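[agent] plan:
  1. take the single chain provided in the ticket
  2. run structure prediction with default settings
  3. attach structure tokens to the ticket
  4. add a short note for the reviewer (M.T.)
[agent] executing step 1
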Amino acid sequence: MPDRMRIAGCIGALSISIAGNVAIAAERPAITLLQSAIAAQGGEAALRSIKTLRVKTDGYRNMLEQSERPEGPYIVEFQHVTVEHDVTKHRWRARTESSIPPFANYAAEIVADDSAAMRVRGTNKAPGNADLLASMKETMALSPARLLLTALEAGDVALGAPATIQSVPQDVVRFTLDGAPVTLFLNRFTHLPTAVDYAGPLARDGYWRFVGDAPMRTLFSSWLLGDRGIRLPMQWDVERGPLREATYMVRSLQIDAPLADADMTIPEEIRAKFATAVAAPPASQPLGFPGQPPVELAPGITLIPGPWNVTLVRQEDGLVILEAPISSAYSDLVIAEAGRRYPGVPIKAVVSTSDSWPHLAGIRPYAARGIPIYCLDLNQPALQRLIDARFDGRADALTARPRPAAFKPLSGRTVLGTGANRLELMPIRGETSERQLMVWFPGAKLLYGSDPFQQGGNGKPTSVQAASEVIDAAHREHLSPDRFFMMHIGAAPWAELEAWMATNPGKFPGEAAS
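[agent] step 2 finished; step 3 output follows
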């Protein structure tokens, strides 16, 4: 027996040794590729000698989440971005000046270090959150000057299957960052990085958190040889799956430029607020606006005011929920509130009126329950992509129990339900509202206009064009509302909107108001 135990132990040790050697063998070619790439970029010593980096870029971002057509052309946000990276002290500052002609101009900053993140708008400074800090750290780690060093320092680097990008063969190296996979594509001829794929927190920033685990690809091109024999790319392109999101061109790059310490420093009071928020994050976004209770617009029609409004409609044979915004977690709250207000009453349908990503991001819990989803025919592909998307890091009911969505696409006026709270769904079909539905409550003479426009600081519509589309659609359908409400606007007199429109013929950018 002892001999058998010794033999078994030797076999086990040999197995572990073989497995370890296989892992090492798999790692060595990847390390060799990385060393070749580092040498091509200027050498490890040169890259590690960088203490600070200031990069100024001009570029644009396609507003994929807000544009009228998912396949483009897109609304464009032009950007001037200044990034300052204090490599020695692990600090990062990014200032973005954005212009969305003819709609908006604004500037914003993000400052981050190893332990906190801060947002800056003008003189207003506010703490970021844990996701922002993670995104900034990953941005630093995956930036062109640090990317290869990050891969070299990873403990799990491995060789991937060869690939072809832009018709050029690529050697592939894989590793993980913050528990998420990174795929690095190295040009087989020059050894320089062609692209990097990543699906961690950085890939879920902004509106992308609404649409599942969408990988982010950054492509590098227009490489230049500069100071200390270091090569860096002068053009970055960002893709999300099949969609081109952004392009940035470098107009200024300085190595070891002096950085203003005040610009890179997070005030202690902001740091303390950040620490408090991270230590006790909210379990989820609350339902509606805290302290602002739901409003009954008419008997059986309950508006839940919030960042994105949701409405519960009681009909004779069940409930209709108007809109499924924000997230699966938010829709779970809405469904729970519907059950509390109307115990035992089934949800017979949900209506999604718009293609903007935050507006439809909560549709998955309804699909998981087999609830019919009424939507504009043009929007069904976007909704289907959301149903099909992976949410591995934020699993919901549909992840646990996949099933086909019960879509009810419509292209013309459609009646939903009977009785006093009968709904009539109809496409707006405007230029800015091409993919939006309005909902008519004939019993209450109430019109829901989806989200073509919002209210400005003066309480008036933000767009004459969009307001005209809603009014024109109501006239086309022979509607005579007493009141209207929208995704971001509470109930208001329809006559006021008509009167405002009659005295605001609109104007082009740069044209004096009439």
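[agent] step 4 note for reviewer: Confidence is low (pLDDT under 50) at residues 1-26.
[agent] ticket updated
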